[in-house]
Amino acid sequence: MTEEKKQKASIKSFPKNFWVVILMEFFERGSYYGVMSVLSVYLVLAVDKGGLGFSKESVGIIKSVITPMLYVLPILSGAIADRFGYRKMLMFAFSVMSLGYLFTGLVTSYALVFVSLLFMVLGAGCFKPIISGTIARSTNENNSTLGFGIFYWSINLGAFIFPLILIPILKDISWSYIFFMAAIGTGWLFFLNLFVYKEPKRPESSKTIGEVLAGMVKVLTDWRFILMIVIYSGFWILYFQMFDTVLWYLKDHMDMTPVDKFVNGILGIFVSNPNWKFDAEHVTVINAGTIILLQLVVSSIVKHTKALPTMIVGIGLGTLGMAILGISTHAWVFMAGMIIFSIGEMTAHPKFISYVGLIAPEDKKALYLGYSFLYGVIGSGIGGVLGAYSYVHFVDKLHNPSALWFMFSLIGVATIIGLLLFAKFLAPKGKH
Fold first, then answer.
1. 341: nearest Cα among 355, 324, 358, 353
2. pTM, whole model, 2 decimals?
3. Mean pLDDT by 10-residue block, N- to C-terminus, for the chain (432 residues)?
């Protein structure tokens, strides 16, 4: 059998339910990243320009609450779904999520926007473990790697297509339409779940909420593991700037005309008088597009390298990407910084996941992998508030954006030093 036929056989080996949840993942993540690609801009934009006119600090607080919830909720919602059924949990998730998006597009007061976004994130957090759980139960030893590969591609494809195509069109009509799009994009999945999705076979032993919390306590007592997570989360403080400070910086200080001319020159081959413009939503597009294009290449380069040194190299690239933003306000320098940061992310993060699997006790691997999400809780919890207050201080008051990016770069350097010290003194021997 040729390699091509093997691949076709592998793709055909997935049951219908696998493709149903891939479709769900694409629309849910597309809706989420579509909104997140412009949310921080919309919330601070002046009311006469169609925004809500909130202060950057107040937006930082919103982001430091809702984003950590996305990382915490799946642990509890996964346990609830295992006991009461995946379809029931999905019905709840899609209902609450789509209502959250809808209300965010309708309300204008700070408190009501905050509550609406909490609804959205409650739904998204309940949705996340159901999809990965269904994929795990729809694949086997032979096609699991390909199955999860398709899963991660569907996330990045949604994060690429929605902000690239839909957001610019909807934004020109009304900012509210972005949230209505997300409400429809996730709301129709309620019916896909109701009529097409099939309840997968339940696991033989379902954990109670009490057992889940006991597992959390067990993991939290492994201070070496927690220390490594805390150090690694420094890099994610940088990552979450992509959805806040980087967007504000782009709107306030960047002239992307050279990129616009280049893209319109290419589009001009196919259409007459193109008028494409680089805007906030395209930051997400750069990140997702770079991952779609290069993840397989990067993964093949680092597949045999040790985890901790590879993570350090990836974080080094991410830190360099952020430092580049502080060097110049030229459009292509900005693009280079974003692309280098994305390459750093895709180098570091898969190795982090594999490293957690390596250092976890043999009988607790799944438990440790489940709680490795803490990097996102810490990174987004600190990143939202730190980014907002630092932006106001360095950029709005001192008019020194370079200082902001160099400060974040120093957090990246501190993360690298922390991991080097961890590798030297605390890492299990032979596993770094």
1. 324
2. 0.93
3. 48 89 97 98 97 98 97 86 89 98 98 98 93 86 82 93 96 97 98 95 69 78 93 98 98 96 96 94 96 91 92 98 96 98 95 88 79 93 98 98 98 98 86 58
Residue 100 CA to residue 119 CA, distance in Å, equals 5
CA–CA separation, 328 and 321 (whole Å): 12
Q: Supply the DSSP symbol for 256.
A: -
Q: Record the tokens describing residue 205, joined without a space.
A: 């032993």
Q: How do residues 402-428 score in pLDDT, each as one tens digit?
A: 999 999 999 999 999 999 999 999 888
Please compute, for residue 59, the number of CA atoms within 13 A of its CA located in the half-sphere on the CB side.
26
Burial bucket for residue 354 (CB in 10 Å: 0-12, 13-18, 19+): middle
| Residue 67: per-residue pLDDT | 97
Q: Are 324 and 340 in contact (CB under 8 A)?
A: yes
pLDDT digits (tens, 9 = 90+) for 160-181: 999 999 999 999 999 999 999 9
Both tokens assigned to 278: 């680089």
Q: How many CA atoms lie within 13 A of 121 on its CB side?
A: 19
**Cα–Cα distance list, 302 to 134, 210, 320, 363 (Å):** 29, 39, 19, 27
Residue 249 in contact with residue 236, Cβ under 8 Å?
no
Phi, psi for residue 13 in degrees, rounded to 5: -75, -10
**What element of type H or E holds 162?**
none
d(CA 361, CA 242): 34
What domains appear along the chain, each with residue ranges and CATH number?
11-202 (1.20.1250.20), 208-432 (1.20.1250.20)
Largest CA distance in the chain: 66
Q: How many residues does the chain have?
A: 432
DSSP, res 242: G
